[in-house]
Amino acid sequence: MSLSLRNNLTSQYLEAATKLSPKQKRRRIVAYVESYDDIFFWRSVLSEFEDETRFFRVMLPSNSSLSKGKKMVLTSCLRSTQLGKNLIACVDSDYDYLLQDATDVSKEMNTNPYIFQTYAYAIESYQCYAENLHDICVESTLNDHQVFDFPAYMREYSEIVYPLFVWNIMLYRARMNNSFPMNVFCNVTIPPTIDIRKPKYSLDGLRLQVEKKLKELEGRLPQYVDKYDAMDKELQQLGVTPQTTYFFMKGHHIKENVVMKLVNPVCTQLRREREEQIRRLAQHRKQYENELSGYNHSATPVEVVMRKNDNYKDLFLYEWIREDIRQFLEELDK
Questions:
Q1: In what helix (H) or strand (E) does residue 270 lie, and over which residues does it extend?
Q2: Which residues of 285-323 are buried (b: 16+ CB within 10 A; e: fewer)?
Q3: Tens-place pLDDT, residues 304-314
Q4: pLDDT, mean of residues 164-192
């Protein structure tokens, strides 16, 4: 090895060793999150901003108890003198982003530079990113046959429920949520049936449910009819469009009652296709059994894939989170 090459490799090694120096020499910023499931999401976000000067430790808000949740995170952070110095809060937005200053909690979340929020309702909302659902099915089943148009379905789904969503937010802002509570909104926005072979039938049934509820609200609460347009305009300024409504609805509701009811039958069909291909191509029973066993071993349950998948980073809401962190770190470095 030449002397110049040896010196170059030594220089590269020392540079790498510097970056891998003990974390005690770097500034530690603790990020409190709501639950175990949130740790992966926020670690994925924050790790992009780690360097030789700082690192993040993502953890639950208490080392002395099993207490979790958004309230615990915010309470722990706001009581700490370290908030903004070596401590930040990372939480689901729920409705607080859209409520703006309608409640004390929403006002704090939307104005405090040390509280970072998902903007979408919750982390599950990112998992439901329609443009990513086909890839999730492929990773789970190892079959790249596209049998369903997830983005088209979720766009139309969002357009159908959007007017009802505007009403829901409008009444929550007015503290009239008992007139149209979250559980009622969620129930109305569940498609009456979901058949991946007949998506239009599913959406038509949903449209009838939503139209019926809209007429009922307009008849029961006529004083809010004239306020609809202003609420619609403000929500769109906040990033909610008729095509993106599902990101801002209750994340668990969308995942369990809409997305998984599409993803599961798609994955079932893709697995059957792959199993049938193995059966057709196998030359004898032993080869069929071995190949099928190998396939089943390589495939992954779709729920596992969905929870660990992070191919939503091109979503505009994710970029909003990153920009908030950039601004925080720029101020911290001054």
A1: helix 260-281
A2: eeebeebeeebeeebeebeebbeebeebeebebbebbee
A3: 999 888 999 99
A4: 96
